[in-house]
Amino acid sequence: MREPVVVAAVQMNSQADLAENLGRAERLVAEAAARGAQIVVLPENFAFMGGDDDERLRVAEDLDAHEGGRIRSFLAENATKHGLWILAGGLPERSPDPKRVHNTCAVVAPSGEIVARYRKIHMFDVEVGDGQRYRESASCMPGEQPVVVEARGARIGLSICYDLRFPELYRELVSRGAEALIVPAAFTLATGKDHWHVLLRARAIESQCYVIAAAQWGIHPKGRRTYGKSCIVDPWGEVVAQASEGEGVVVATLDPRYLEQVRASLPSLQHQRIGAASRKA
Ligand SMILES: O=C(O)CNC(=O)[C@H](CS)NC(=O)CCC(=O)C(=O)O
């Protein structure tokens, strides 16, 4: 990263109605653009949340198809209209398994093209004590590959929601040069209230990266409740922008000079003695 980059995290309250969700996402992306964002992160499940598995399979898209489906067309139109990057979700992508989708973050360039994608690796198969039983692996096929992309000159490591609990993923992203990490999420209210900020700030501090976390907020179909608190954390671990209740947009600037200053003054990334980064040294 040579120049400062303005980034936005979008907070949504997505439901099971694709058209309605895309309409709201469109307004929120426009708001982010109006506030100067060059890169916009949409939350996990921005296009579809909480419907049944059959419906998710129906809205899932083949992102390599010649013609874009509704989600891909929406992303292409909005990226080109505003001339910005969209790091989109968690969206349902068709997988080789006809009964499951990939939970995929699509990286959409200002040209409208999907230039990279990350498929969520860690599946949320958990009972968190909120009366809900989460079995993500029943409807989602996990990905295998960590992904770092360059957008607007910034190297960005991709992750989704539950991935946040697996620091080894972020170590890998940092060893591939990440300067910012994104965490589109639908964190539950039950876990989010105790873990969300702690984990985001820990990832920012140990990775010495900006962290851009775009979350779902509120009540969704099937009584699912999410925590919200979308935020942007700087590489020192300070929360520099945070969403309030409801849908909205938070904006912050990634500053390459500040990033360099943090990494130079506290060179913990150069002091690693375990794992891939230390082997290189
Ligand atoms: O439930 C829904 O419909 C939406 N949620 C999701 O799509 C995903 C997979 S089920 N949620 C998480 O990964 C939450 C992780 C989390 O909350 C934690 O790690 O504590």
UniProtKB/TrEMBL annotation:
Family affiliation: Belongs to the carbon-nitrogen hydrolase superfamily. NIT1/NIT2 family.
Keywords from the UniProt entry: Hydrolase
Pfam families: CN_hydrolase (PF00795)
GO MF entry, a single one: hydrolase activity, acting on carbon-nitrogen (but not peptide) bonds, in linear amides
Residues in coiled coil: none
Cross-referenced PANTHER family: DEAMINATED GLUTATHIONE AMIDASE, NITRILASE-RELATED
Residue span, CN hydrolase domain: 5-256
UniProt signal peptide: none
SUPFAM superfamilies in alphabetical order: Carbon-nitrogen hydrolase (SSF56317)
This protein's record includes keyword Thylakoid: no
Tagged with keyword Hydrolase: yes
Name by which UniProt lists this protein: Carbon-nitrogen hydrolase family protein
